[in-house]
Amino acid sequence: MKKPVSVLVLIHTPALEVLLLERAAHPGFWQSVTGSQEGEEPLPGTAVREVAEETGIAARPGDLADWHLTNRFEIYPEWQHRYPPGVTENIEHVFSLILPSPRPVVVAPDEHLGYRWLPWHEAAKTVFSWSNRDAILMLPWRIKPA
User: What is the CATH number of domain 5-142?
Assistant: First the structure.
Protein backbone atom coordinates (compact mmCIF):
# COMPACT_ATOMS: atom_id res chain seq x y z
CA MET A 1 0.00 0.00 0.00
CA LYS A 2 1.15 3.52 -0.80
CA LYS A 3 1.62 6.18 1.83
CA PRO A 4 -0.56 9.27 1.32
CA VAL A 5 2.58 11.43 1.38
CA SER A 6 4.24 12.48 -1.87
CA VAL A 7 6.62 14.91 -3.51
CA LEU A 8 6.24 17.23 -6.46
CA VAL A 9 9.57 18.19 -8.04
CA LEU A 10 9.72 21.04 -10.53
CA ILE A 11 12.75 20.60 -12.77
CA HIS A 12 13.60 23.87 -14.49
CA THR A 13 16.34 26.03 -15.95
CA PRO A 14 17.48 29.52 -14.88
CA ALA A 15 15.43 30.84 -17.84
CA LEU A 16 12.37 29.15 -16.28
CA GLU A 17 11.94 26.41 -18.85
CA VAL A 18 10.07 23.60 -17.08
CA LEU A 19 10.33 19.87 -17.73
CA LEU A 20 6.96 18.13 -18.11
CA LEU A 21 6.26 14.41 -18.41
CA GLU A 22 3.25 12.86 -20.17
CA ARG A 23 1.48 10.20 -18.08
CA ALA A 24 1.37 6.75 -19.70
CA ALA A 25 -1.95 5.88 -18.04
CA HIS A 26 -3.51 9.14 -19.25
CA PRO A 27 -2.10 10.32 -22.59
CA GLY A 28 -2.37 14.09 -22.85
CA PHE A 29 -1.98 14.57 -19.07
CA TRP A 30 1.28 16.39 -18.37
CA GLN A 31 3.00 16.81 -15.02
CA SER A 32 6.24 17.46 -13.21
CA VAL A 33 8.01 14.65 -11.38
CA THR A 34 5.80 13.22 -8.63
CA GLY A 35 5.89 10.20 -6.38
CA SER A 36 5.06 8.71 -3.02
CA GLN A 37 7.30 8.45 0.00
CA GLU A 38 8.43 4.90 0.72
CA GLY A 39 8.64 3.77 4.34
CA GLU A 40 10.49 6.23 6.56
CA GLU A 41 12.48 7.66 3.63
CA PRO A 42 13.31 11.36 4.17
CA LEU A 43 11.32 13.57 1.78
CA PRO A 44 14.44 14.89 -0.02
CA GLY A 45 15.38 11.23 -0.56
CA THR A 46 11.94 10.59 -2.05
CA ALA A 47 12.44 13.55 -4.38
CA VAL A 48 15.91 12.38 -5.48
CA ARG A 49 14.65 8.82 -6.06
CA GLU A 50 11.64 9.95 -8.07
CA VAL A 51 13.74 12.31 -10.22
CA ALA A 52 16.11 9.42 -11.02
CA GLU A 53 13.29 6.92 -11.69
CA GLU A 54 11.22 9.24 -13.86
CA THR A 55 13.94 11.14 -15.76
CA GLY A 56 17.27 9.37 -15.34
CA ILE A 57 18.71 12.56 -13.79
CA ALA A 58 21.07 11.83 -10.90
CA ALA A 59 20.65 14.44 -8.19
CA ARG A 60 21.62 14.65 -4.53
CA PRO A 61 19.39 15.96 -1.74
CA GLY A 62 21.57 19.10 -1.59
CA ASP A 63 20.78 19.84 -5.25
CA LEU A 64 17.10 20.29 -4.42
CA ALA A 65 15.35 23.36 -3.09
CA ASP A 66 12.77 22.45 -0.44
CA TRP A 67 9.98 24.99 -0.82
CA HIS A 68 8.57 24.18 2.64
CA LEU A 69 5.21 24.13 0.89
CA THR A 70 2.63 21.38 1.25
CA ASN A 71 -0.58 20.77 -0.64
CA ARG A 72 -3.46 18.61 0.50
CA PHE A 73 -5.69 17.12 -2.15
CA GLU A 74 -8.21 14.36 -2.66
CA ILE A 75 -6.84 11.17 -4.18
CA TYR A 76 -8.64 10.38 -7.45
CA PRO A 77 -11.12 7.52 -6.89
CA GLU A 78 -9.41 5.42 -9.59
CA TRP A 79 -6.19 5.45 -7.52
CA GLN A 80 -7.63 5.05 -3.99
CA HIS A 81 -7.18 1.25 -4.15
CA ARG A 82 -3.42 1.84 -3.91
CA TYR A 83 -3.81 3.32 -0.42
CA PRO A 84 -4.96 1.88 2.90
CA PRO A 85 -8.75 1.64 3.32
CA GLY A 86 -10.37 4.94 4.23
CA VAL A 87 -7.48 7.10 2.98
CA THR A 88 -8.86 9.72 0.61
CA GLU A 89 -6.34 12.60 0.87
CA ASN A 90 -2.68 13.00 0.05
CA ILE A 91 -0.13 15.46 1.42
CA GLU A 92 2.28 16.66 -1.28
CA HIS A 93 5.62 18.36 -0.51
CA VAL A 94 7.07 20.70 -3.16
CA PHE A 95 10.72 20.72 -4.23
CA SER A 96 12.59 22.07 -7.24
CA LEU A 97 15.75 21.17 -9.11
CA ILE A 98 17.50 23.66 -11.36
CA LEU A 99 19.52 22.50 -14.37
CA PRO A 100 21.73 24.81 -16.46
CA SER A 101 19.73 24.19 -19.64
CA PRO A 102 17.10 21.85 -21.10
CA ARG A 103 18.46 18.39 -21.75
CA PRO A 104 17.18 15.05 -22.92
CA VAL A 105 15.80 12.78 -20.22
CA VAL A 106 15.01 9.07 -20.07
CA VAL A 107 11.40 8.53 -19.02
CA ALA A 108 10.16 5.40 -17.26
CA PRO A 109 8.00 3.86 -20.03
CA ASP A 110 5.56 2.29 -17.56
CA GLU A 111 4.89 5.76 -16.09
CA HIS A 112 5.43 8.26 -18.91
CA LEU A 113 5.13 8.41 -22.69
CA GLY A 114 7.45 11.34 -23.27
CA TYR A 115 8.67 14.70 -22.09
CA ARG A 116 8.94 18.30 -23.15
CA TRP A 117 10.52 21.51 -21.94
CA LEU A 118 8.19 24.53 -21.94
CA PRO A 119 8.46 28.15 -20.80
CA TRP A 120 6.98 28.39 -17.29
CA HIS A 121 3.81 30.21 -18.36
CA GLU A 122 3.04 27.55 -21.00
CA ALA A 123 3.91 24.74 -18.60
CA ALA A 124 1.44 26.14 -16.05
CA LYS A 125 -1.33 26.00 -18.68
CA THR A 126 -0.38 22.46 -19.73
CA VAL A 127 -0.32 20.51 -16.45
CA PHE A 128 -3.51 18.81 -15.28
CA SER A 129 -2.94 19.19 -11.54
CA TRP A 130 -3.85 22.43 -9.76
CA SER A 131 -0.99 21.97 -7.27
CA ASN A 132 1.50 21.52 -10.12
CA ARG A 133 0.09 24.59 -11.88
CA ASP A 134 0.27 26.72 -8.74
CA ALA A 135 3.88 25.69 -8.07
CA ILE A 136 4.92 26.54 -11.64
CA LEU A 137 3.21 29.92 -11.32
CA MET A 138 5.38 30.60 -8.23
CA LEU A 139 8.65 29.94 -10.07
CA PRO A 140 9.32 33.53 -11.23
CA TRP A 141 9.17 34.68 -7.60
CA ARG A 142 11.30 31.81 -6.30
CA ILE A 143 14.25 32.35 -8.64
CA LYS A 144 15.63 35.26 -10.58
CA PRO A 145 15.29 34.58 -14.35
CA ALA A 146 18.47 34.42 -16.43
Answer: 3.90.79.10
- At residue 58's C-alpha, the angle toward residues 132 and 34, to 5°, is 20
Mean pLDDT per segment of 10 residues, for the chain of length 146 residues? 94 97 94 96 98 97 97 89 92 97 95 97 97 97 69
What is the CA 80 to chain-centroid distance, rounded? 19
Sign of CA dihedral 94, 95, 101, 103: negative
pLDDT of residue 53: 96
Cα-atom radius of gyration of the chain, to the nearest Å? 14
Phi, psi of 29 (to 5 degrees): -95, 120
